Amino acid sequence: MMSKQQSAISNQQCSQAHRSGFVNIVGNPNVGKSTLMNALVGERLSIITSKAQTTRHRIMGIVNGEDFQMVYSDTPGVLSPNYRLQEKMLEFSRSALVDADVLLYVTEPQDTIDRNPDFLEKVKRMAAAGTRVFLVINKIDLTTQETLESLVAFWHSQLPEAEIFPISAQERFGVAQLFDAIKEALPVGPPFFPKDQLTDKSERFFVNEIIREKVLLNYDKEIPYSVEVEVESFQEEEHLIRISAVIYCERESQKGIIIGKAGAALKRVGSQARKDIEDFFQKQVFLQLFVKVDRDWRSNTGRLRHYGYDLT
Fold first, then answer.
1. Which residue among 158, 185, 212 closes a domain?
2. What pairs with residue 248 in β-bridges?
3. pTM value surpassing 0.85
4. In this structure, are 8 and 130 located in the same domain?
């Protein structure tokens, strides 16, 4: 990621009162980070499913106003890695602790403090060192007032420097208040990106993510986590986008499951993905999907680089 000094645009492009900063969203898997990111940005940029570990990359969403620019980052859930891909996902999450102007640590009523105590300790040290940390208790629509009061008291004891925001990202309850608090916490400075930019990711990236989301929704067990998607061609015409993409899996047996009897399962994934891609680009889409085997790609450093996971 580029440095703030390298990416900052000339001071002449903003007033002295302009605020700009990086707002990084971290937390354990399946606490609603992606739902919160999309609610704050006002666009659907991150995959949202009930399955954990759906976010693999660090995804930026940029919100611009006349006197502010918020650069949000959605990160993978913090976990103990079992293979090379998960190691890289953890690196994305840790990197969010380094460059945050405002850190959103997201939890929810069923979350437990022992899921990743080392990561929480890093957040505590950041808060103690002066980083603005907002402790976001998500999914409060699924708990009682009594439980919520206990959670607020507990998290205040754990992160006394943090400001606590009980919200429901799904229901948009408390999101506007959180947004306003983030804006006020940003440092004064020029924008880091052009004011008309929405994200740091390419069009192909979002096509990949939409297709991968449909795989997550349509298959069970290990299949969704063994899959990567790659767009091989993206041709935009005046009224139509022609897309050809490959769903890669790790085993021949997985390939058969993804395709399904007479291709029915793959056809269902393609139909669902095409509708969402059309909504995303506001244009008709012709989508072709293929399935290929890339054996053990999740543990292969070269293949991970090929799929866009920049490994050190």
1. 185
2. 228, 292
3. no
4. yes
